[in-house]
Structures are given as C-alpha cells and as structure tokens.
Amino acid sequence: MPLDRNQLIGKEAILLLLQDKDQLPERLRQLNWKFCKGKVGAMDGKKVVAAVETAAKNQGIVKPDLYRETHALYHAILEAVSGVTRGSNQIGTLLRTVGLQFVIVRGNPYQDKAEGEWLAVVLYGTIGAPVKGLEHEAIGLGINHI
C-alpha cells in the first residue's frame, strides 16, 4: 500500500515545529499520533542526540526498554542532525554551535495500518561560529520505521 498523501509524517512534523506556539496540533491528535517538542543548544553533537532521545523517552514517544524503538529513534536523529550540519555531523570539533528546536512525531503514514509506525525527527534553528550573530538558519529531517 502506498503512503497516504493526506498524512505525511515528515510534513506533519515540520509543520508542527514551525507553527505558532498558541496553535494546538489538533490534526496529530485526530490521527492518534504521538508527538513532543523541545529545545537544545550545544557545541557537542552528543548533547543534541541526548536531548532529543531523552524527550522521546520521557514523553512516551518511544519505550526505553525496547531496543528497536530507541534504535529507530537514534537513526532518525542522526539523519536530522546530518541535514542541519550539511552532512558533517561534527559540531564543536569544527568550532560550530547550534541552537535548535525539535519535534518528534510517531505514527503510521500509510493507508494500510499493517505497515506499522514510523518516527520523524525535525530540527530547526541556527548553526555557526560560537559568536552571537555569526550563525545562520538550518533545518534537518529524519524519518525511520520502527
């Protein structure tokens, strides 16, 4: 079965991240998808991964004791970080710092529910030299099946 073009998980994650804080993510609730938002600033890529992973576990997006869920999350995070860093996942070692917002969404974007659930992680914010004003916007999206 093909993707359901009315419920693309990456698109929904990006829209959730970029919408105004006052807007409720009613669409995701109607789809019965899980989601959470957070922020992280760091010069260390491990801190970005840890912040997203911790939020996903604390908000019940993934079950910490199920390897396949945390493994899927890890790969979605790395893919999103790769987008923000333009393929070089190093941050502090290259004298770069990031200030990011993130969203994690879990749901089934397929018409056939037997396809199972997927995770989308989107990171949006700034990356640049560790000097205020010497950064630029960046966005990254990672999607992985559970």
From TrEMBL:
<dbReference type="InterPro" id="IPR036482">
    <property type="entry name" value="Regulatory_HutP_sf"/>
</dbReference>
<keyword id="KW-0369">Histidine metabolism</keyword>
<keyword id="KW-0805">Transcription regulation</keyword>
<comment type="function">
    <text>Antiterminator that binds to cis-acting regulatory sequences on the mRNA in the presence of histidine, thereby suppressing transcription termination and activating the hut operon for histidine utilization.</text>
</comment>
<dbReference type="Pfam" id="PF09021">
    <property type="entry name" value="HutP"/>
</dbReference>
<protein>
    <recommendedName>
        <fullName>Hut operon positive regulatory protein</fullName>
    </recommendedName>
</protein>
<keyword id="KW-0010">Activator</keyword>
<comment type="subunit">
    <text>Homohexamer.</text>
</comment>
<dbReference type="InterPro" id="IPR015111">
    <property type="entry name" value="Regulatory_HutP"/>
</dbReference>
<dbReference type="GO" id="GO:0003723">
    <property type="term" value="F:RNA binding"/>
</dbReference>
<dbReference type="GO" id="GO:0006547">
    <property type="term" value="P:L-histidine metabolic process"/>
</dbReference>
<keyword id="KW-0804">Transcription</keyword>
<keyword id="KW-0694">RNA-binding</keyword>
<comment type="similarity">
    <text>Belongs to the HutP family.</text>
</comment>
